[in-house]
């Protein structure tokens, strides 16, 4: 049995970020304004959600520690605060906040998903003969998981892409029809 952690979807309004993972700039201006207004109006008003969120984090850690297969996803809901790519970074950060090591959080987000899909011999880790997309980070995520926000290069199908240029290319475009 596997459980998919989608912590960014459920992270309540706790004063942290308007769009989780730092993706506010990616939204079109109208959505930036809407999300910022909603975020400001909802800060720390729902203490039950905060308590439930902390319980969810603890439950996921217990599940994993008991031998459960925990995989990660971000499941953008259309509500505006969960933007693909940005939410993936936030997922790693939240797993570490829940008590996982950075290495465990990365494994949950890579190898565990491949294992669940029965593709761990093809993907999920960096090994000779496997397919792998890579990111180069300017920092050490084991010391500070937020260093994953400092991606320099993304390798997809063997081609390196400038991460800063990729993120810049989507600024103000998420939400266009």
TrEMBL record:
Pfam assignment, any one: Amidohydro_1
Q: Its Gene Ontology molecular function terms?
A: hydrolase activity, acting on carbon-nitrogen (but not peptide) bonds
Task: Identify the residues that the record assigns to the Amidohydrolase-related domain, covering every copy.
Answer: 67-158
Cite the Gene3D superfamilies for this sequence.
Urease, subunit C, domain 1
Write down what this protein is called.
Amidohydrolase-related domain-containing protein
């Amino acid at each position: 049995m596997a459980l998919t952690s989608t912590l960014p979807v459920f992270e309540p309004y706790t004063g942290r970020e308007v769009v989780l993972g730092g993706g506010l700039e990616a939204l079109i201006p109208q959505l930036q304004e809407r999300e910022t207004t909603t975020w400001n109006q909802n800060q720390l008003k729902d203490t039950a959600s905060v308590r439930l969120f902390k319980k969810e984090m603890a439950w996921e850690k217990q599940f994993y520690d008991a031998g459960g297969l925990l995989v990660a996803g971000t499941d953008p809901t259309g509500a505006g605060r969960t933007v693909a790519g940005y939410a993936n970074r936030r997922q790693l950060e939240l797993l570490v906040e829940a008590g996982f090591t950075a290495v465990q959080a990365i494994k949950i987000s890579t190898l565990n998903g491949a294992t669940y899909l029965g593709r761990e011999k093809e993907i999920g880790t960096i090994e000779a003969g496997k397919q792998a997309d890579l990111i180069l980070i300017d920092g050490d995520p084991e010391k500070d998981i937020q260093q994953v926000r400092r991606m320099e290069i993304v390798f997809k199908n063997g081609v390196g892409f400038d991460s800063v240029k990729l993120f810049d290319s989507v600024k103000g475009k998420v939400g266009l029809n």
